[in-house]
């Protein structure tokens, strides 16, 4: 979203952009969507994801000469800045950054440019075999953009899966405080992945290019039927492509989605990737094949009934309830035991970064066991003292980073139901089912009043409850870290007037076909 009363700004200089963003960085979350222009539905999807999650969206439009070889299509690459600017303005983008190569510090002789390189094993696989120098050009400019914009979040399309993996590695290796989000491939109705280079294709070639997606889909069906040998899956794709006139295969490979190392069998996940020429146009496409049960992400505001519903949904579907709240309580317990002041965020970061946490599910219906540094704290974390501390603890960046990483590790094989504020947007953005559970302020206040009355507290003012809920909603949605957001692909479920069982039944219905 754009800050109130702000119009979209177009900057062509680093100085102008930095000066503008400097006035926002202490109060607003900033998202970067790097592009080379010629914006299409794939870019629009990235921008919409960013707008739904951060306060200020910066779209960079820069055709990067460092990533083009001398024989490639740098001069022919589509340029349509005016059209792109109008599109961004219509979408609600806050800032466009459209520098020249000179402004980005690129010298005519590439040998004289400082360059940033990902690990050689990542750069040399897949497209790297056929486009030497391409990825170091990409990582160099992306690093420059990160330094110029200083975004909290950066958005990249999963169609460029090799690029995405390298940028994630780069951010990890250089200790950059940027969250990298991959967004799903957007396809034309035919299945052809959107690309700026699609406009090079004739109508006949567009029909021929559909074979890339069709080959991946056929391989996916074999994978879903139990095939795990990558040589078999690769052969399935190649067979489809070879039978397609006009398609000249450059490679079909299956690699690990994060390391890009070749796989013989898919144990957790495999990136099945294609590069091929259709006519004179080089196209890429891919599909990630995951060996995992589904993940169900349930987000929503406080008082919407998430915890109660999520536990029951997990039980009904025979999945694990991932009690993220218990994990934050465990960290709060550790901080309390260590006698560290809540204001000393650096000491808490040091403590949490060295802590080990375990979440042990029970098969007999009992609550899961929570262990921290080898100590069972399942009951110790349910005290009023911990309850009073946990909100402040969970708002600290180091704590969230530690626990989100642990939750994602637990979710590798799926089979979980989790609830919170940012489960579908941040923790499990690739969850099979995302639900945003909500209710009106009045309904949530009424429920809370009934809870108080059941506890024997009859002197509660419902209007005060409504004000408290509105204030909590505002705080949760404007947090710098993990703000409450509805994922762009989440299904909203308003629970006004519904019983708990009716809500559970609706969620189970929405999960049909995924569990």
Describe the structure.
By secondary structure, the chain is of the alpha/beta class. The chain has helices spanning 14-22, 41-53, 81-91, 120-123, 134-149, 161-173, 203-224, 230-242, 306-317, 324-337, 345-353, 384-394, 397-410, 423-427, 441-454, 462-477, 500-511, and strands at residues 9-11, 30-35, 56-61, 95-97, 153-157, 179-183, 247-255, 269-278, 281-290, 295-299, 320-322, 357-360, 369-372, 375-376, 416-420, 433-438, 491-494. The protein folds into three domains: 9-183, Rossmann fold (3-Layer(aba) Sandwich), CATH 3.40.50; 196-290, 2-Layer Sandwich (Pantoate--beta-alanine Ligase, Chain: A,domain 2), CATH 3.30.1300; 295-511, P-loop containing nucleotide triphosphate hydrolases (Rossmann fold), CATH 3.40.50.300. It has 17 helices and 17 strands. A six-stranded parallel β-sheet has the order 1-4-3-2-5-6, with helices on both faces. The protein has a five-stranded parallel β-sheet with strand order 11-15-10-16-17, covered by helices on one side. The longest helix is centred in the middle third of the chain and has 22 residues, at 203-224. The chain is globular. The two termini are 34 Å apart.
């Amino acid at each position: 979203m754009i800050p109130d009363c702000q119009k979209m700004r177009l900057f062509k200089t680093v100085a102008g952009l930095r000066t503008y963003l400097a006035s926002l960085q202490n109060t607003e979350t900033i998202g970067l969507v790097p592009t080379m222009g010629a914006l299409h539905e794939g870019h629009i999807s990235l921008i919409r994801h960013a707008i739904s999650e951060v306060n200020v969206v910066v779209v960079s439009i820069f055709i990067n000469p460092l990533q083009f070889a001398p024989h490639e299509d740098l001069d022919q690459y589509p340029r349509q800045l005016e059209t792109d600017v109008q599109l961004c303005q219509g979408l609600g983008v806050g800032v466009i950054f459209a520098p020249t190569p000179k402004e980005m510090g690129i010298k005519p002789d590439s040998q004289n440019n400082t360059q940033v390189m990902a690990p050689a094993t990542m750069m040399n696989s897949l497209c790297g075999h056929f486009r030497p120098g391409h990825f170091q050009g990409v990582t160099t400019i992306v690093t420059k953009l990160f330094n110029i914009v200083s975004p909290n979040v950066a958005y990249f399309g999963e169609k460029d899966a090799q690029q995405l993996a390298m940028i994630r590695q780069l951010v990890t290796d250089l200790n950059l405080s940027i969250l990298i989000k991959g967004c799903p491939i957007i396809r034309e109705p035919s299945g052809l992945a959107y690309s700026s280079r699609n406009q090079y294709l004739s109508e006949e070639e567009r029909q021929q290019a559909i074979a890339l997606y069709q080959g991946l889909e056929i391989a996916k069906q074999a994978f879903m039927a139990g095939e795990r040998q990558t040589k078999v899956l690769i052969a399935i794709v190649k067979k489809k492509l070879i039978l397609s006139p006009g398609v000249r295969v450059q490679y079909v490979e299956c690699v690990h989605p994060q390391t890009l190392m070749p796989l013989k069998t898919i144990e957790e996940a495999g990136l099945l990737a294609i590069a091929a020429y259709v006519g004179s146009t080089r196209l890429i496409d891919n599909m990630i094949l995951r060996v995992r049960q589904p993940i169900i992400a349930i987000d929503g505001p406080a008082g919407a009934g998430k915890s109660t519903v999520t536990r029951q949904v997990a039980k009904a579907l025979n999945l694990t309830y991932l009690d993220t709240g218990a994990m934050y309580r465990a960290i709060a317990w550790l901080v309390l035991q260590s006698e560290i002041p809540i204001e000393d965020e650096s000491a808490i970061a040091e403590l949490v970064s060295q802590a080990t946490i375990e979440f042990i599910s029970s098969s007999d219906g009992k609550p899961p066991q929570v262990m921290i540094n080898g100590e069972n704290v399942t009951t110790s974390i349910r005290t009023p003292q911990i309850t009073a501390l946990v909100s402040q603890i969970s708002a600290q960046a180091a704590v969230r980073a530690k626990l989100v990483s642990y939750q994602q590790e637990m979710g590798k094989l799926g089979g979980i139901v989790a609830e919170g504020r940012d489960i579908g947007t941040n923790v499990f953005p690739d969850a099979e089912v995302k639900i945003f559970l909500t209710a009106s302020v009045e309904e949530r206040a009424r429920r809370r009043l009934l809870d108080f009355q059941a506890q024997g507290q009859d002197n509660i003012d419902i209007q005060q409850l409504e004000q408290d809920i509105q204030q909590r909603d505002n705080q949760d949605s404007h947090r710098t870290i993990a703000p409450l957001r509805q994922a762009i692909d989440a299904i909203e479920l308003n629970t006004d007037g519904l019983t708990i069982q009716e809500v559970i039944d609706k969620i189970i219905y929405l999960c049909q076909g995924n569990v």
